[in-house]
DNA sequence: CTTAATGCAAACGATTTGCACCGCC
DNA sequence: GGCGGTGCAAATCGTTTGCATTAAG
């Protein structure tokens, strides 16, 4: 997983700097869908003179290389997610939490969507991106209690 | 379509102001996926003292009421889309254009995704949101020429 | 060595906010 | 006529930029 991502960097002639390594490790080891600031706060302790501009740069780079994906968040900001295995996102309308849901039949779904896009608009699909919105388990239970 | 949206406003005890009406009409009559600024530039001519803050307010309101949906754009900004009939979006990695693609089997797909979200996380799905990324027809042809 | 990458601080710009006024219901 | 909505301008804050410095390959 980590190695595969480094491989991607090498294949694109991107230098493997310590900053990129710790940001990558952070993304792999945390499934909390961090914001730029969350990452910055977490890493500046062990890497005191880490610049927030570097984090912006690095995340944009990783996204371009399809190592991570960007998601829209409740507050209008952006969250990032290491994209090791295909999954989609369930985003709670109440608390804003983002949960990963595994795709049972990712390839098939992708093909179906790609076919429609091609048939209707001559659009060539490279990747797909799915979110569902609603209520997470906790919020459902909380709201049920209240009435 | 227009009436149905007004109905939604009434049902939520939201006042139907001239500003909300022209913004709504604009969204229905344009499938260009406008940004806040695009809408502002277009409408301030016929409504000279229209405030950009009102547009922000109105769009946020419409989105909350599921009259429109917000999409992430190429440049990091946000575009809006009147959501009359179920469709997903094909976003070109090269030129940033957003195209609407009709869902052939929207309900079935929604059910499948909702089932996974429920089974895996106890998440109750209200709406789904799908984008595919790749190359639009024009860009494919352009890029083919160049080599 | 060469050149990409980083850190820093300043600049930017989209979005939000506070408040007085207005007008929909 | 009450209160939600609007317009305006200022404030905010996430993100980008320019440039000198550093270090990866």
Automatic annotation (TrEMBL), chains A, B:
Cofactor (UniProt): Zn(2+)
The entry's keywords: DNA-binding, Metal-binding, Repressor, Transcription, Transcription regulation, Zinc
Metal-binding in keyword set: yes
Sites where the protein binds Zn(2+): 92, 95, 136, 139
Any Gene Ontology biological process: regulation of secondary metabolite biosynthetic process
Cofactor note: Binds 1 zinc ion per subunit.
Pfam families per UniProt: FUR
Listed GO MF terms: DNA-binding transcription factor activity; transcription cis-regulatory region binding; zinc ion binding
Family affiliation: Belongs to the Fur family.
Protein name per its UniProtKB record: Fe2+ Zn2+ uptake regulation protein
Source species taxonomy: Bacteria, Bacillati, Bacillota, Bacilli, Lactobacillales
């Amino acid at each position: 997983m980590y190695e595969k991502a480094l491989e991607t960097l090498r294949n694109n002639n991107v230098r493997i700097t310590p900053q990129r390594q710790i940001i990558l490790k952070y993304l792999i080891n945390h499934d909390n869908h961090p914001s730029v600031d969350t990452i910055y706060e977490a890493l500046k302790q062990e890497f005191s003179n880490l610049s927030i501009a570097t984090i912006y740069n690095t995340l944009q780079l990783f996204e371009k290389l399809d190592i991570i994906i960007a998601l829209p968040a409740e507050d209008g900001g952006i969250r990032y997610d290491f994209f090791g295995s295909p999954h989609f996102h369930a985003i709670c309308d109440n608390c804003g939490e983002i949960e990963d849901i595994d795709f049972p039949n990712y390839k098939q779904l992708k093909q179906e969507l790609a076919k429609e896009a091609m048939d209707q608009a001559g659009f060539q699909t490279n990747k797909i991106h799915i979110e569902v919105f609603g209520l997470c388990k906790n919020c459902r239970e909380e709201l049920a209690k209240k009435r």
